[in-house]
Amino acid sequence: MTAMNKELVQPLSNAEFFFNNSDKSNATNEELMEGLKKFVWDFGKVPIKNGSKPRKIMLTLKNIGGVPAEWRFKMPNDSEILMEKWADPGEPSTEQAFETHILNKKIFVIEPKTGSLAPGEQVDCAVLYYPKEVMKHHLNVFF
To answer: What is the pTM of this model?
Structure first.
């Protein structure tokens, strides 16, 4: 978390600026992710029998700046466009199918996903991992 904290206080890189303005771009997710730093959160092994409780990581977000700040965790499907029933999206890649499986089963949940903070304000966010099958799960989530 220390590395992530150090990164979050830095000015935006060109890749981060490009990603933040991706709604004005036709770039693919792979193109948008180029140059972005990745941070891995390992939830460890979690028993799944008898409907075990989720593993939880709590994050405290604090606005240390002098102006209001909006924030958002962006899940991979947050920017999907609903397709007409007649449209053929083609076959998903193995990674896309795995990602869709994780999203549909709600294996990772973030609460709350969006918000705004006045200068000096802070909020706690929960990142929950609900393993529902025996396998290794991963998901790209953007902040």
So the answer is: 0.69
